[in-house]
Amino acid sequence: MDLAVLCRCTQATISGLETGNLKACSEDLAKEIARRLKLDVEDLFIRKESSRVQRVTNAASSTSQGHQAETRTAKPGKLRPMPGAGKLSAA
Q1: How distant is the alpha carbon of residue 28 from its chain centre?
Q2: Distance CA 89, CA 77 (A)
Q3: Neighbouring residues of 62: CB distance < 8 A, sequence distance ≥ 6
Q4: What is the pTM of this model?
Q5: How far is residue 57's CA from residue 25's CA, in Å, rounded to a whole number?
Q6: Who contacts 83 (Cβ-Cβ below 8 Å, separation ≥6)?
Q7: Quick one: which of 6, 66, 91, 90 has its CA closest to 80?
Q8: Smallest Cα–Cα separation from 9: which of 28, 23, 29, 27?
Q9: b/e sequence 13-38, b meaning 16+ C-beta within 10 Å
Q10: Among 24, 15, 71, CA closest to 47
């Protein structure tokens, strides 16, 4: 079954996390992805903390526009994919 369906998100979200085009996701989504892949969240995502929000982000470089958009929409508990985590696929 498709990971996006299992995690109740869009395929674009999963693809964005895989490619680094999506720089962060909610902690709940990160936990669900990790659970579905039978991995620890810490193996897939990096928690980033700031004075404004706590989030987990991917290590891929971001464009300034993408970073600005993420800053506007960031909510507490955001996660970024780990560098080298590779494809996210449910077995």
Answers
A1: 10
A2: 23
A3: 20, 23, 70
A4: 0.60
A5: 7
A6: 58, 59, 60
A7: 66
A8: 29
A9: bbebbbebebbbbbbebbbbbbebbe
A10: 24
Listed residue (50, 38, 43) closest to 77, CA to CA? 50
Structure tokens at 36: 């579905």
Q: How far apart are CA 89 and CA 36, in angstroms?
A: 9
- 48 pLDDT above the threshold of 70: yes
Pick the range with the lowest mean pLDDT from 5-9, 32-36, 55-59. 55-59
Q: Which two tokens stand for residue 64?
A: 């300034």
Q: What are phi and psi of 85, to 5 degrees?
A: -65, -25
Cβ neighbours around 81 below 10 Å, total: 27
Quickly tell me which residue has 């999506």 as its tokens: 22
CA 3 to chain centroid, in Å, comes to: 13
The one-letter amino acid at 68: Q
Neighbours of 52 (CB within 10 A): 9
